[in-house]
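Extended Data, panel c. Modelled sequence:
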Amino acid sequence: MTTRLSLVTSDGTRRPAPPPALVLVAHGSRDPRTLATVHALVDRVRELRPGLPVHLGHIELNEPLLPDTLAALGAPRALGDQEADGAVLVPLLLSRGYHVKQDIPRMAAASGVRARFATPLGPHALLVDTLYERLVEAGWHTPTTGAERRSSGVVLAAAGSRDPDAAVDTRRTAGLLAERLGVPVLPAYASAAAPTVPEAVRALAARGRHLVAVASYFTAPGRFATECADAAPWIAAAPLGAHPAMARLVLHRYDEAARVPAGATAPALATA
């Protein structure tokens, strides 16, 4: 058990309070590739920040579930005017929506753990870097002539949500990716929102853009990512996965949230 004495060094100076734990909150999936990808990302985060306690919790479908992860962290312990416990919850989600606004705070409140809530991963420039590199891996090359630029386009395939804020965030990422690629990028969705990937492909074709790639705006492989890739008329990029930039983004969101008081939310939607 941590005591007040443990907060004082041998020369009488006060030790800094340990940092809050990082809890990476994944959605959960029945696809085993998803769980393997999430574990690989957790390992990358640990490699980048040795000594930081990094934990994983799922909203549903996979263990450990978030309430179990938070229960294992234990209730907060006050240590004078410093508190050593607590956690920063970083959602492995790409936009705002019900899970970010309702599920995660509700589970944290029920746990008794003093929690800070990071914003979702997107939109952010590091996501755009990852999307770009995944497209290049799939065979994308930057159009070099006017004819190539006029015939090229990208569909940003996302999961979809009924929350209008999620669509705002996805459109923002599509805009950032379009700036990076120099061609139009249309957001499309696997469920709960429109347009679908085939509809977005047709919309680009109607504008004379027949060389269309699908950028996979999914954190890991799964049914939705596969269905969207299957609808690609040309190339389809792999999901974001455990790309090194994703691990850096997780730590960036952690650092943002760790700077604000417990129970508050980190500054929203930074893109740099």
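The radius of gyration is 21 Å. This feature is highlighted in the accompanying rendering.
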